[in-house]
Amino acid sequence: MAAGEVSEAEMSEECLEKDHDEDHGLVLPRVQRPRYKKLAARPLKSCHMTVDLCLHLIHKAMCKNQWERAAGLMTSYLQTLENRHTERQRAAPEIIWRLGKEILLNHPKAENEDINVFNEYMKNIGLKNYLSMSLEQAFHMLCNGETDDALRVLGLAESWRYGRLSIRQNKLQKLIQAHRAVLNYRSWLDRKAAASQNDLDYASQSSSSQVMGSYYRQATVTFREIVQQPGVWDPFILNYVHLLESSGEIQEATKILTEYANNTKNPPNPNAHVYLYEFMERNEASDETLIKVLRPLHAMTPSHKLMLTYSKLLHSSDSEDDQKLALLVLFDLLDFSGWKKNVEAWSYLAKQLKKTFRHDHSAWILEAWEPRKSWWPSYHFAKLHAKKDWHECAKLAMKKALVAGMLQGPACVYFTSVCASGEPENKTTALNRIKKYVMKHNCVNVPNPGLPLPESDVEEAAT
Questions:
Q1: Axis crossing angle, helix 362-369 with helix 320-333, rounded to the nearest 10
Q2: d(CA 371, CA 377)
Q3: How many angstroms separate the CA atoms of 365 and 449, rounded?
Q4: Which of 20-29, 83-92, 308-317 has the least mean pLDDT?
Q5: Which of 418, 302, 304, 291 is nearest to 350 (CA)?
Q6: pLDDT of 368 higher than 60
Q7: Hey, what long-range contacts does 65-74 have (CB within 8 A, 24 or more apart)?
Q8: What is the pLDDT of residues 203-262, one digit of tens each?
Q9: Residue 238, Cβ neighbours under 10 Å: how many?
Q10: 272: how many CB neighbours lie within 10 A of its CB?
C-alpha cells in the first residue's frame, strides 16, 4: 500500500509540473516538499497532496483572471493553517496573505473594507510578517486617500513588539518610522496651506499653529533618526530638506545633505550629490562650492547630465588645473553613447579645444586624446556617422567635424565627408571657416611630449 501511494504521488507531481510549465503569468510562491527516494518508507500524505493541488488550482485560476473561482478555492486552502508539518505551517500565513490580497484586489465584488478586514485578520496569524503586512496595508490605504487610517496603522506597527527582532524586522521598522514621518510631513504641509488662506479666526489659527508644530516636531525627530542610519533614503531626505528649508533652517538642511552625501557608511549614491548641488544652487552658493560638490559626482558617474555644468564651472575658474579638468570632463562625458548626438556637448568641446589651442595648452588635448585615438574614430567619426549626422542635424555634423579635424587632422574621414557635403548653401561659409581653422590647428601638427624628438630637431634645438 505504501508503494502504491508513492507511485500515485509521483504521478500527481508529474502532472502538476507539466501543467505548471504550460501556464504563463504571475508566479506565486509554492511550498517545496522534500523528494523521497523510491526505497524510502515515508510516503507523501494524501492531505499534503490535496493542499498542493489546491494551491496549483488557485495559481491557475489567477493566471486566467478567474478571481471568483480563486476565492472559492482559497477557502479550502485555509486548512493548511492547521497543518502540523513545521515547514508548511511556517510558510502558510505568508502564502495565504499574498494570495488573498491579490485576489481581493482584483475581485469584482471586493470592497476596501474587505481588504482591510482581511489584512487585520492575517496580521494576527502571521506574526512574523506583521510589519510587512502593516506597511503594505498602509500603502493600500494611502492609494485610496485614507491618510488618517494609514497613520494609525503605521503608529501601531511602530510600537509593535513580539519576541526578538530579526535584522529584517529591524529594517522594516525603520521603513515604517520613515513613512510615518512622511505622513506627518504631509499633514504639516496641508495645515500650512490651510493657514495661508487667512480664512480662519484667531482661535482656529492658534489651534492650527499648535497642530502644525506638533507635526513638525514629530517629522523632524523621526527624519533625523532615520537618515543617520546607513542606507539609501532618497525620498525621505527630500521631504526632510523641504521641511527644514520651508521653516528657514538653511544651515541645518545644508548639514543634513552634506552628511548624507559624504557618509562613507552609506552605499555609493549619485543622487545624494545631486540633491546637495541642487540645494546649493537654489541658495546661490559660490562657484567654488558648487565645484566641490560636483567633483565626487564626476568620479562616481561621469556620464551624468550635470557634468556639462561641471565642465562650465571649471572652465570659468582661474586655476589652470580646473581648466584642464574641464576639458577632460567633456571627453569623459562623450565616451558614453547617450551623448553621441548632443549638440550642446559637441559645441562646448569644440569651443574648449579652440581656446586650448589659442593658449598653447595643446598638451592637455594630447593627454585626453591619446587613450581615445584607438577607438573614438570608429565610435564617433566614421563615414556612416558623418552622413547620418549631416542628414539629421547639420549643426551637429559641423561641430563634430570641427572636433574631428582638430583631433585627427584635416585628412580624417568624418571631416572630409562633412566638408564634401556642401549643402545646404547657407552652411558652406561656415564649412569654409572650419576648413581654414583645422588646417592650422590640429593634433597632427603638435609634437607629442611623450615621444622623443628626431635627431635633426635635437641638433637644431641645441644650436
A1: 30
A2: 12
A3: 11
A4: 20-29
A5: 418
A6: yes
A7: 65/106, 67/103, 67/106, 67/107, 67/108, 68/107, 68/108, 68/109, 70/99, 70/103, 71/103, 71/104, 71/107, 74/99, 74/100, 74/103
A8: 566 677 788 888 899 999 999 999 988 999 999 999 999 999 998 899 999 999 999 999
A9: 15
A10: 25
Residue with more model confidence, 84 or 417:
417
Q: How far apart are CA 101 and CA 303, in angstroms?
A: 42
| Least-confidence region, from 8-17, 424-433, 454-463 | 454-463
Q: Residue 71 CA to chain centroid, in angstroms?
A: 36
Report the distance separating Cα 75 and Cα 100, nearest Å.
10
Residue 410 and residue 438 in contact, taking contact as beta carbons nearer than 8 Å: yes
**Looking at residue 341, what DSSP letter applies?**
T
**What is the average per-residue pLDDT within 30-56?**
59
Q: What is the mean pLDDT of the chain?
A: 82
**Cα angle, residue 309 at apex, residues 308 and 315 outer, rounded to 5°:** 90
Which three-class secondary structure state does DSSP give residue 278?
Answer: helix
CA distance 226 to 123: 25
pLDDT of residue 463: 32
| 90-142 pLDDT, tens digit each | 788 888 889 999 999 999 998 888 888 998 888 888 677 888 889 999 998 98
At 450, list the grid cell: 611623450
Q: How far apart are the first and last CA of the chain?
A: 109
Query: For residue 424, is the peptide bond before it cis, meaning its omega torsion is within 30 degrees of 0?
Result: yes
Residue keyed to cell 579638468: 325
Confidence at residue 204, expressed as pLDDT on a 0 to 100 scale: 60
Q: Has residue 404 got a pLDDT over 50? A: yes
| Burial letters 304-342, b for 16+ CB under 10 A, else e | bebbbebbebbbeeeeeebbbbbbbbbbbbbbeeebbeb
What does the block give as the cell for 429? 561659409
Please tell me whether residue 316 adopts helix, strand or coil conformation: coil
